[in-house]
Write a structure and sequence with these properties.
binds ligand MGD; alpha/beta; about 725 residues; binds iron/sulfur cluster; 7-stranded mixed β-sheet; binds molybdenum atom; about 30% helix; globular; single chain; 6-stranded mixed β-sheet; 25 helices
């Protein structure tokens, strides 16, 4: 490892985009006048966040050129061929190897690595069947790489088991969007509509830390007279901008929203014409919210009835309004229902499909939107086509040049895929663009499962916590090295050029997938001269699907600086504002749903009396693989800090200098602690960007939403006590 040779500039293509969140701010690589070093500057010509970058974006070069970059293929030296094929050498044997000093990695030539891996995959598949090999992808990858991962799994592995980290991210929002609108695009409107909204509800979304360059849109709306409401158990940096902050205990969103819907219906403040002509399900909704009088909501949530009435009346009467939700209420076993209820608010008041109005599930990862459209999901083919739909199978098989009968059926969600490893059904896994040992709930199970694998191949820039369990670690490409397209939180597809040469022997992710397919004997389906050819095939594969890219080309993207899907023909100018006349259900109408609030998977009780919720801080990104390797960000937040309310601190007798021990039914972990009035008194918050002894996911619960299969990252029951360091 080591980053010598990293970062030769490709002088024609210095305009690029940040690798982190879904805003996808434009950035420019320049040679700093004073130091002569390569540096990042904000770009002014990309409309999303013209001239702005947050702390993560400004520091995004550092991990790319980090000395810990993996620069050659690596293999475990204790992986003897014969024993392997006879049933596998597992990590237990690493302990023995460690004892005689042969642990660690050994470099290997690409000419050996790819054929070796292919041979092992074939051996495993011939012994245990095609489905014994799974693939785990990511939402930071380009549309092209996401597309190829899906195609590789179905065509070259012929396995049904693929899913990706976006399951932990956008799956509840996706399911709710499909149920309510018939279509899943995170935001129904472009960001440029936000300043026109007169009433904005932000629920479970901490925009100021998670999409910082969106803040100016909110401030502009406020300047134009908008009222801003946040609904969050914590008084976050986002809540500090709000006119009203509803400090709800995690798990009470549907109760609270039912209160709002109750007032809107009882006081006849809803948009009768919109409800009559553009929706169905009003009766069911009215019935469900009937018992949720503001008085009852006050009893259940502690939120004053006057607050419920004020927000309900204000939102319904405002001429324009927007509701944005994110993981706070989506990452729950009731995540889909919670999201549907917030969508109800926008539909009931007719605030959708016109300027200054809309609903948005604020997408998370760089390509969290595109990453879920092109066949990385267990049940989907490109363009959101369902893998179990015979017409979809027929169409995509034709594009791929295979017999539809050869296409596998649907697999299982990310966490269930890891469970299948634990149960012994899946024997080999390829991970590209994710670090599931840090990011999965109940991560002790994941560690146990990965130890059981006969083959784990990780394609990454770093030796991550997941790569620590791998047999092969292959150096993939960073965002500055791989060309491709991505789709931001608005549904805006754009082109990201290659800016730097690959360091060392690292390979482009897409080339690596094609080479593996070739070695597996399916090279004829993966013949691409360039990444643009992959895009053209992707666009064709999506034609007629819900996420239709068929009118998009690289040439158009470069010329028009991005296009909103659906864009079904070369003449089509894209669709920034959705649902102006029809929703995507066959009858053109949106669906209202009556939601009866349900309990979390693990309600608090006498033994585990407090709620643990988890999330993010501004200076780190997801599993931290990139940002923990960035000095300025690491310095800002070197360790996770648990937040508790002064009432709870007193109750447990926390002393100055103590740390906080949190114990769930899964494990027990000690964190640094900060006492703050901002948080709900019965709730503890811990960010999840760290692994090992600092990993909050050792405590979280594996319960999944029944529809979206989203884990309940936002609620589990814990014991809390102070501990001397
Ligand atoms: N700095 C930074 N930015 C990021 C990321 C990152 O890791 N770091 N990740 C990106 C990704 S992939 C994603 S998905 C997004 C996530 O963006 P967000 O969803 O905004 O981030 P979270 O911190 O997970 O959760 C948001 C808020 O939900 C609150 N919350 C917890 N439980 C509940 C509840 O029951 N109801 C309500 N209403 N709120 C609740 C938390 O207190 C928290 O403030 O951010 C993206 N941007
Ligand atoms: N407790 C708790 N857990 C959570 C959440 C939470 O709120 N609470 N949020 C969940 C959410 S919303 C998400 S999105 C997940 C994300 O969780 P992960 O998928 O684990 O997060 P990342 O850190 O983005 O992992 C990406 C990995 O791919 C590598 N990588 C990045 N770009 C590239 C590339 O272009 N090519 C290659 N080859 N490798 C690349 C990085 O080095 C990194 O190791 O975490 C989930 N886990
Ligand atoms: S707001 Fe998001 S995309 Fe923009 S610089 Fe920050 S992390 Fe990158
Ligand atoms: Mo996410």
């Amino acid at each position: 490892m080591g980053a010598e040779g990293t970062g030769t500039m490709n002088a024609d293509n210095l305009l690029t985009h940040c690798c982190f969140c879904s805003m996808q701010c434009g950035m420019e690589l320049v040679n700093d006048k004073n130091t002569g070093e390569l540096a990042i500057r904000p770009r002014h010509d990309f409309p999303v966040a013209a001239g702005r970058l947050c702390q993560k974006g400004l520091n995004a070069l550092e991990h790319v050129r980090h000395p810990e970059r993996v620069l050659r293929p690596l293999v475990r030296p204790w992986l003897p061929e014969a024993a392997w094929l006879q049933g596998g050498v597992r990590l237990e044997e690493a302990a023995a190897a460690q004892a005689d000093g042969t642990e660690g990695w050994q470099p290997l030539a690409w000419e050996e690595a790819v054929p070796d891996i292919a041979r092992r995959i074939r051996a495993i598949q011939s012994e245990y069947g095609r489905d014994a090999v799974g693939v785990y992808g990511g939402g930071s990858l380009s549309n092209e790489v996401c597309y190829l991962l899906g195609k590789f799994t179905r065509v070259a592995l012929r396995s049904k088991y693929i899913d990706y980290n976006g399951r932990y991210c956008m799956s509840s929002a996706a399911a709710a969007g499909n149920q309510a609108f018939g279509l899943d695009r995170g935001m129904t409107m472009p960001l440029s509509d936000i300043p026109q909204a007169k009433f904005i509800i932000l629920a479970g979304t901490n925009i100021a830390e998670c999409q910082p360059t969106m803040v100016p849109y909110l401030l502009e709306a406020k300047k134009n007279g908008a009222l801003l409401v946040t609904i969050d158990p914590r008084n976050t940096m986002t809540s500090k901008m709000a006119d009203i902050h509803v400090r709800l205990q995690p798990g009470f969103d549907s109760v609270f929203v039912n209160g709002l819907l109750h007032v809107i219906i009882a006081e006849k403040l809803y948009d009768q014409r919109f409800v009559d002509t553009r929706t169905t399900g009003f009766e069911q909704l009215a019935e469900a919210v009937k018992p949720f009088t503001p008085e009852r909501v006050e009893e259940l949530t502690g939120m004053l009835e006057a607050v419920v009435r004020t927000i309900a009346r204000g939102f319904a009467k405002a001429p324009t309004g927007i509701v944005l939700t994110a993981r706070g209420l989506e990452q729950q076993v009731n995540g889909v229902e919670n999201t549907l209820n917030y969508i109800n608010l926008a539909l009931l008041t007719g605030k959708i499909g016109r300027a200054g109005c809309g609903y948005g599930a604020v997408t998370g990862q760089a390509n969290g939107q595109g990453g879920r459209e092109h066949g990385q999901k267990a049940d989907q083919l490109p363009g959101y086509r369902l893998i179990e739909d015979p017409a979809a199978r027929e169409y995509v098989s034709k594009v791929w040049g295979i017999d539809p009968a050869e296409l596998p059926g649907k697999g299982v969600s990310a966490y269930e895929l890891l469970q299948k490893i634990d149960e012994g059904e899946i024997k080999a896994l390829i991970v590209l663009g994710s670090n599931p040992v840090v990011s999965s709930p109940n991560s002790r199970m994941v560690e146990r499962a990965l130890r059981k694998l006969d083959l784990l191949v990780v394609i990454d820039m770093f030796e991550t916590e997941t790569a620590a369990f791998a047999h092969y670690l292959l150096p993939g490409s960073s965002f500055l090295e791989g060309e491709g397209t991505l789709t931001n939180l608005e549904g805006r597809v754009f082109h990201r050029p290659q800016a730097l040469e690959l360091p060392g022997e690292a390979k482009l992710d897409y080339r690596l997938i094609c080479e593996l397919a070739e070695e597996l004997g399916y090279g004829r389906y993966f013949q691409y001269e360039s990444i643009e050819e992959v895009f053209d095939e992707l666009a064709l594969a999506t034609a007629g699907g819900k996420a239709d890219y068929s009118g998009i080309t690289y040439e158009r993207l470069k010329r028009e600086k991005g296009l909103f899907w659906p864009c079904p023909s070369p003449e089509h100018s894209g669709t920034p504002l959705l649902f102006t006349e029809r929703f995507h259900h066959p009858d053109g109408r949106a669906r209202l749903f009556g939601i009866t609030p349900k309990m979390p998977a693990e309600p608090v009780d006498q033994d585990y009396p407090y709620v643990l919720t988890t999330g993010r801080v501004g200076s780190h990104y997801l599993s931290g693989a990139q940002t923990r390797r960035t000095a300025a960000l690491h310095k800002k937040t070197p360790v996770p800090v648990a937040e508790i309310h002064p009432w709870l601190a007193r109750r447990i007798g926390l002393k100055v200098g103590d740390q906080l021990r949190l114990t769930s039914r899964r494990d027990s972990v000690v964190f640094a602690v900060k006492v703050t009035e901002g948080i709900h008194p019965l709730t503890v918050f811990v960010p999840f960007h760290w692994g090992g002894e600092l990993s909050v996911n050792r405590l979280t619960i594996q319960a999944l939403d029944p529809t979206s299969r989203m884990p309940e990252f936002k609620i589990c029951a814990v014991q809390v006590r102070g501990e001397k360091v």
